[in-house]
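A quick aside before the break. I want you to see a complete sequence-to-structure record at least once, exactly as it would be stored in a machine-readable document. Don't worry about memorizing anything.
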Amino acid sequence: SKRAMALKIVASLSYIAINNLDRVNITALNSGNITQLKQVAGSKAFENMLTELEKLEFKGNTKLSSSIKKRPIKTKGVSVVVSDFLDDNGLDDLEEGLKYLAYKHQQIILVQILAKEEINPEGLGEVSFRDSENNNEVKLSLTEAVIKEYKATLKNYQEKIEKMANKYGGKFIVVDSSMEIEEVILSEFPKKRLLH
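That is the input. The structure line, written in tokens, reads:
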């Protein structure tokens, strides 16, 4: 699931940071609000962080920009935003959040997690899609033409996110939630010159 992959990525990156004697701050963004987990440093704190991560709920509409701006940032660092970026508020809203992070001297890493079905929809005919965050349902009649147009639109959207990330000195990576975490951390991240 996307939730499981998001938690694995956050835990893995946190573990790497802690082993490099860095501090880790985790902020969950939800419906324009933030939940700040305790600052983490050291192996004992890492275990506590894993417990806190498991308690996080993924629900409600994400309002990335307003949530990001609520995050108190006092020092230079790395901000990793893990999301599907399928936000009704669009790219202009995301850009406001990235401007804030850049202003706060953050190295920005955007990690888009999509389900296999979102990356490569299969099957033709009537299909129902349910948004796991807000439970909204959309019914579509999938044809080869619709799938082709969807893939082109998704690719264009991802290119815009990557261009925006680059504009603020950041990186953008797309992760399939069905991938193994080892492949994500040891292969996909290095391809984008992250974790090298």
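Two observations worth writing down. The chain has a mean pLDDT of 83. The first strand starts at residue 27 and ends at 30. We'll return to this after the break.
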